[in-house]
Amino acid sequence: MVTSDEIKQRLWAAANELRGSMDASRYKDYMLGLMFYKFLSDKTLNTFAVSAGIRNLSEEEIMNSFEEEWRADEEGLKDHLLKLLGYYVKPEFLYQNWLKAINSGDFSLELVSDSLNNFERTISGKNNNSDFKGLFATSSIDLSDSALGSSLKDRSENIKGLILLFADLDMVSLQKGDILGDAYEYLIGMFAMESGKKAGEFYTPRQVSEVMARIVSKNKNIRSVYDPTVGSGSLLLTLKRNLNEDDSRNLDYYGQEKNTATYNLTRMNLLLHGVRPEKMEIRNADTLSFDWPEDPDRPGEGVQFDAVVMNPPYSWKNWNKAKLKVNDPRFEVAGVLPPDSKGDYAFLLHGLFHLGQEGTMAIVLPHGVLFRGASEGLIRKRLLEKNYIDTIIGLPPNLFTNTGIPVCVIILKKNREIGEPVLIIDSSRNFIKSGKQNALQEKDIARIEDAYVSRSETEGFSHLASREEIIENEYNLNIPRYVNSMDEEIPHDVDGHLYGGIPEKDIKNLEALNSAAGEILNEDLNEIREGYYSLSIPKEDLLEKIVNDHVVTEAKSKLLNETENYIKHYWNELRNLNKETNPHLLMKEMLEDIKEMLSEYRFIDKYDAYQIVAELWTNMLSKDTELIAAEGFYEEGRKRIPYFVIKGTGNKKREEQEGWIGSLIPNELIADHFFKAEQQSIVSKTEELSEKESEISEMIETAKSEETDENLALLEAVKKDENDEPLDSFDTKLLKEELKNAVKGTPEYSILKKADSAISRKNALAREIKDAEIKLQNEVQDKIPQLTDQEIDELMFEKWFGHTTKNLIALIEEPIKRELNTLYM
Length: 825
Known about the structure:
Layout: H1 4-18, H2 24-52, H3 59-72, H4 74-85, H5 95-104, H6 109-123, H7 152-165, H8 171-176, H9 179-195, H10 206-216, E1 224-227, H11 234-241, H12 245-250, E2 252-257, H13 260-272, E3 280-284, E4 305-310, H14 344-353, E5 355-366, H15 374-385, E6 389-394, E7 407-412, E8 422-426, E9 432-434, E10 437-439, H16 442-454, E11 462-465, H17 467-472, H18 494-499, E12 502-503, H19 504-508, H20 511-523, E13 525-529, E14 532-535, H21 539-547, H22 550-575, H23 583-598, H24 606-631, H25 633-637, E15 640-647, E16 654-662, H26 667-674, H27 676-704, H28 709-714, E17 718-720, E18 726-730, H29 732-741, H30 747-783, H31 789-801, H32 804-823
Parallel strand pairs: 1-2, 1-4, 2-3, 4-5, 6-8
Antiparallel strand pairs: 5-7, 6-7, 8-11, 9-10, 12-14, 13-14, 15-16, 17-18
Helix pairs in contact: 1-7, 1-9, 2-9, 2-13, 3-4, 9-13, 10-11, 10-16, 16-24, 20-32, 22-23, 22-32, 23-24, 24-32, 26-30, 27-30, 29-30
């Protein structure tokens, strides 16, 4: 089985190789468009095969049967497919026939353009299929574009490379596990990062989408969602993933997108994620100039939705091209139009207009909307007076590819209780560097989600701003006015710097140390003058005393016991996964449980524990659960798959198999577990080889020094450059000749013999190591299918949880170590 990660890596590597110098923002249209056409072809064939009861036949046999049925009853088969799918691909225009043409040498770009054009014509005028119209418009896939290649031959070769890329992927089976949709969205994200600022029009980073979706999904009974600036559809799909299966299945998706190529991308993305055509309504238009959708039963009134999500263009200038007035229903609530120079509030008011009375809206905007004055200040005041603003979430800078400015997420509701405060969350300092961008970690998203759900106040992170506070601040919502930035640095004490000593007030502020080991700390503090102390023992010794004290050891023992029970429970859950199990739900359960388990430990940050389990899923469990659910735990544990490496360069670049690897269990883990002696032998020989190489290098360096015995004996045998300058290796042929001519018993002979022996031993060791590595590799490969159930249990437990307990227990010592470091600064 091909996993989601493997498909993602393979497709992105191929994309980089195939696109050459073409801009990523343009190349994505070709790659993703052809990938989608393969899906349409596979879906057409699969639907026919299921209907005809022949899905167990080979693909070629199904195609032959499809062609025969088409000749016999073309109209009947068309109607049947339209009823089931809303579209069809004619037999001669199937993707599979493109592949046949490539293999027979009859391929031409005309076949591709005819296929895409025919699909457009077959859909045109049919009922309930507007979701497929214009998907392959030349504005997206222009096969005559010189960027694809300067000549017809070059363009043909480049398109052939793309077609072959998807040849062996069964798009229908991949769609069932959402693997196909995940791969598609991954490619959209990767192209976005490659495209830089151009990507901002169509892509919202996954972490930002996740924050918005988790909050919006807290609303019960969501039946419809609307994104007025839908881009690639990532916000809609992230919300889908955060709903339970029933709500997700019944969800109606609405979106509007101005850019035609991106509009096509949205529809493909939704369809690949299994969204039924009748459940989606995506429109190609300017959201602000053309309000949509209107309620058909109430002309002039907009349809209202259970959820509204959007990431509009920031501070869009000249947004009011349609010369809208304040009496536009969308802006009446504000009583004033947003300034023409900044469209932020225009988008917000549009979304709010379409928000249902019980719904939740989440929008990403620049921080300026929180404090700018003039008409924006009046709009903000009006929204606060109407009690529509529920939560403000400040995010870190540089999260987006198209801007480095920090942004905020604003949550709006129409059904807030009178007097309910506005929750303000400052998560601007919670991030890690990820390449050129900043990124929220899973624990950062969870911290925001929990603060939203509990509506709790945490110093330096969240605050409930009352109506009185907001009025006092003249309706300015700038986050620093409400959430004070916590300075984790201990303030410098001038007297302590001048005269030495640790201020007593700083010692009293060390909560973890005083709670866990206050008595021990006091024992090792000496007062050097009033209010100032010194430590009588080194930091390492004090740390050892504290971590071995009963308070800390009892906490460790308790956490160890709870961790073992936690792991035991989920170990059984993971081993018994099947096709009916939803790994995403299991992941959420594991994350919630670890967070709850660590909540009672006062000085442990439960979100650090959350991150440990989240990374376990990211690095291992996401892929492994896919395999186990499809094939079974022990079956997959005994499976080995080919290991391919890339060899050669340029036109000679090729993929070759180089042995086998465990599908589920890494070869290295098997080697560590069963072949320690063999590994140690290789390590010992490698160390000896390194010693011999150093010995030979030393001989050569000495030989380069004049007036040494080595210079007289060895210099002739050292390789020389074109200027007769000595290099850093011996000419072994010359060395043996020199040795043959040397007189035994002389110093010259002894030196030459020593060099020759060292080289011989070095070469022998290199051969022995290579032979041993090949032998070990073969033994490991042979071992994989022979693994017993018990051995698989031991290996997989080590793989998944070998470090988890240690990492969780270490969380107890981290605050102690952190505070100790401040004492020894």
